[in-house]
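Box 3.1. Reading complex inputs
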Amino acid sequence: MPKKIIALIAIVLLGTGLFFLLNHSNSDKLPLSSLDHHDHHHDEVKNEAIVDNHKTTPQTRKAYPRDHLASRLNDLQTPIQERVYAVRDLSLDPQESLGKKNLQDLIIFINSENPFMRDPEARDPHNFKSRQLQKEASLRVYGIKRINQDLNYKDAQRALNQIIQKSNDKALIRIAKQVLDAKKEGQDYFENIKKGILSLEPVAD
Amino acid sequence: MNISLMKLSLACLLLGLVSTTQAANYFDKAENCLNVADIKAVDSHFEQFQNFSNTSKTQVCRGDMDEKWFEVVRSTLALQRLNVTDVLQRDANDDMTLRPIGQKDWWTYYTQRANQYVIEPSRCNGNPNVVAFVYPFFRGSINLCPRFFEMDSASQIEVLMHEVRHFDGHSHVTCTQGNEEGNAGACDRQIKQGGSYAVSVQANVELSYVDQLNFADRVLAESSAIYSVNNKFNSLPTVKATDYVYASNDKAEVWRLPKGKPSQAEFVTALDDAAAIYGNGSQFTVYPVDTTKDAYRISKGFKTLATAIGAYANMYNADNATERKAYGAISYYGMGSIVKDNNLHTFCGTQATSMTSFAFNSGNIKALPVLKDSEGADKMFIMNDAGDLYEFNCNDNSGRLSTAQTRSVLPAETATAFAFNANDAVVLTDAGELKAYNLKTNSYEGIISGETNWISASPLKVYNVFDNDLK
């Protein structure tokens, strides 16, 4: 009797396995290796959301070797998403020497010329180059946000003044000035402007 | 035994079938298949999509259709889901949820302006870096060039929304300021004119809340919006946050008074009936004095009725007119609660999906003042008829509610009270007066309004965008 049950289970499992195989081959599904990769990608997205929801602490942030950071952030061969994570994970604690170095390198990066700023094609708003200019500028804006988030007013003032004085990007200078003004009042420019935009008379209503 | 095994086998087969129709994440560029049912839901509008939805399959995958059309359908389906996927809108029935997004309907906006795609028209050949364009006189048709398909999902959505705004007659102007000064057709005049760049900015801010996008793409959407705000308008948009007291009176009027400037009171609206209004950050829940009338929720501009009115209003509306007379104080700030028969009803515990009731045994609940904790966050207290204040706490792990008396007191005549900071509070008295109250000295500091017919008062921070001439 037990042998019969084992045989039945084996048949059902084989049948189910066969069904899956047929199902995948009949519906032009991806091979299993691709599906594994696909699922893994979903897991990554989930993990990223978790990191986002749990504020990264200074202890978990990395301190990059000085020689590498600015060049890494400027490396157009590195996908922009990876560079966003590099900025996110930076330790910017001005009390620590590596945090101080990271901050200085971040400022150097923010002040470095946008590689598409002088590209004539980037001046056409329908051109892909203008999108790339916008992405590179956005990474610098995120750097300013990190400074605003992690530093007290005095340290942020010192850092943002370097951007206000040395950047050749007029929009970044405007942002740095407004961030500083809001921080002086105990407010967050990024939150205020987002809420302001959301309270605009909506086009989509 | 055989029957059990057959059931097991059937369950396995069903599991296999279910696994083939799992929900797709259309914001994910790596998504390999699209659900045919989702395509069918939009193919009466985008008729070109019927080429892919007329199939007996439950999904169509990359190999089943042209790679570029796959991208077009995927990004369109992602755009359709923009309304329903953001983290702030998920808790539509949560009384405490702030909803700054305000139920914008981007899908309706988009489908009112677009109904077909032209993939790689000949004009794309003129410049390999062009992304997309429209001819304003060919309303509905969006031309997509090869670069469009290389873009990340959020950028594709922003491009589509930006382009269709041109069908409304919004064209760009020459930049008169900033990095692109002198550049023709690269700026809009003012963000408040609602042109294509205003749409890009609004869309990007909203995309920054979409939890189906990964963290980096959300960061880039937010940062891109802020960069555009400071680069793409010839008048610089700046924002000012102002604290207001919103108050309703027995004439069914709603007024708002800027904090510290009561003389600048502004009339907001006239309600259908005299009512108490309670803010939750971006909307008001309105409880008419006449208990035969139902409670409702409305946008902070008192223009748009909300479909989800929250659990407290639902509880109130479920009772009849006589039962409604047993309701007392209500608060949507801090922990939030609604009082009925001296019982507090609120949500407590990480898994709480229904309200918990708590009997208050230290007198009659007179008010639910919302003051600030040491970190400046809203904290709701219970005030009894003697003016004593009690902390109201929820142990999230156990789901247990408790109270603890504080050393603070408020005037016994308080009907409603809330604070803007550790010092300054607003008190609505039983006599219908609005007064400024100092929480440090425990004394009134003045009259906010000389009227004595106020029914309710609620705080609201309002963010105003101003266009600043840069010349």
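In summary: Chain B has a mean pLDDT of 87.
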